[in-house]
Design goal:
By secondary structure, the protein is α+β, with helices and mostly antiparallel strands. The protein contains seven helices and six strands. A hairpin with a 4-residue loop joins strand 5 and strand 6.
């Protein structure tokens, strides 16, 4: 004799499936380390999956997401970055001065984690890059990857607080990554 599930049992099973799906989504989101999410954000997820890099950096983002990040990625080969540089959000050098100013703001936010000497060395190196590219994403403007309008992004009166900047030095095989969420 077949036993049919009651309505209550069906609802419990559906709720359990929804809960299991939610848990799986959260695990996927939070399983990645901040430096791995950084590579994904700039279109370098292939580099992340192949693990062809080393990194160093600081991340001050807390539970609610506010904070700043600086990561330096050392790539094991220059060729792997060619495809990434053709992606959305990447631009040829020179880096716009307003972008350099924002990298300085991120580094100032990390003054408790990065010494003044190291912050100045990072800025000096950024200004000496001759070959590579730069990336900018204004998180408040989803279209910023497709339609780069730095004049609008940096116009007076607008608070720029949530963004990602990356600068790639192809001579050194390094990506300088900056992230701000305030």
């Amino acid at each position: 004799m077949k036993k049919h599930m009651s309505r209550k049992e069906k609802i419990i099973i559906i709720l359990l499936l929804i809960f299991a799906g939610l848990i799986l989504c959260l695990v996927e989101i939070f399983a990645k380390q901040p430096y791995e999410r950084a590579l994904d954000a700039i279109g370098a997820n292939k580099i992340r999956r192949q693990k062809t890099y080393s990194w160093d950096g600081v991340n001050t983002h807390g539970f609610f997401g506010d904070g700043s990040s600086y990561f330096l990625f050392r790539l094991s080969g220059k060729k792997q970055m060619e495809e990434v540089l053709e992606g959305e959000g990447w631009h040829s050098l020179p880096v716009d001065e307003r972008i350099i100013d924002e990298t300085e703001n991120v580094l100032k936010n990390l003054e408790n984690d990065i010494s003044e000497t190291d912050r100045q060395n990072i800025l000096t190196k950024l200004n000496q890059i001759n070959e590579g590219g730069w990336f900018f994403y204004d998180k408040a403007d989803i279209e910023s990857l497709k339609n780069m309008d730095l004049d609008w992004t940096f116009h007076s009166g607008r608070s720029l607080a949530n963004y990602i900047i990356a600068v790639y030095d192809s001579d050194a095989g390094m990506i300088y990554y900056f992230d701000s969420d305030r």
